[in-house]
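Risk register update: the risk of archive-format incompatibility is retired. Evidence:
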Amino acid sequence: MPDIPIRAFLVSLIALRETDAGHQVLLLKRTRFLVGEWCQVSGSIEEGETAWQAALRELQEETGQRPRAFYSADICEQFYEPQRDAITMAPVFVAYIDPAAQVMLNEEHSAHRWVSIDQAVDMVTFGGQRRVLRWVEEEFIR
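Archived output:
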C-alpha cells in the first residue's frame, strides 16, 4: 500500500490584539494564491529557518509588525493537497500585537481587517482555519 507523504513547509500565525471591545484577530485579503480570500498570516519556511523564525519573519513581511508576545499555539493547521497527493501540516503560532499599531501590508494582500473570532470564523474559507481560530480562542483568549 503506498504511503501519503506528510509535508511541513509552511507556518500559520494568528495575530491578536486586545481592545476595549475584546480580543480581535487580524485577517488579510490575498492577492496571489486564493485571490480575494481572507486568511491569517502564513508563509513558507525558508532554508535554514525554524518554524517559529518563519512565523516572525512572515508577520514582519506581511504586516510590518513585531509582536509584544509570541507563542506556539500547540496545534497544526492541516490539509490534504490532491495535486500532490500529500498532507500538509503547518505549525500555528500566536502573536499579540500592540492595539495602536498600524498594519502595513505587502504586495501579497490588498486589505486587512481586525475582527472578532466569530467574525473571523465566518470570513475564512477552510475548516482547518476555523478549527485553529476556535482553538486559539479557547487556549489564548478564554
